[in-house]
Amino acid sequence: MKYMMFVCSDSEPDPDPAAEPDIHLWVSENDAQGRRLDGNVLAPTSAATTVRVRNGELLVSDGPFTETKEVILGYDLLECADLDEAIEVARTHPMARAGRIELRPVSALPDRPGD
């Protein structure tokens, strides 16, 4: 099962002074196990562009749509047997301590009615 793992900042990181895990080691281990299919760091929110259409009019604005201190910093697409395995993979990511990790199952786009 595929899971999208959003790597996010957090205003309350773990205060534990233990050494943070190495992100490059995390990536290479999960790539080697076939659990990480893709992933990358995102540009800062200052580079974001928000696109909306309202009443047929295109609205484009700089920056993220929401005002928040916590932002999505990156992503990883995982292939795991189940949610328990995805949680274990997320638990070992360095940002699970410095930030937060959000996991979501990837679902197929529903068929169009009549197809």
Automatic annotation (TrEMBL):
Cite the SUPFAM superfamilies for this sequence.
Dimeric alpha+beta barrel
Ranges for domain YCII-related? 22-107
What residue ranges carry the coiled-coil annotation?
none
What Gene3D superfamilies does UniProt report for this protein, alphabetically?
A: Dimeric alpha+beta barrel (3.30.70.1060)
Family of this protein: Belongs to the YciI family.
User: What is the protein's name according to its record?
Assistant: YciI family protein
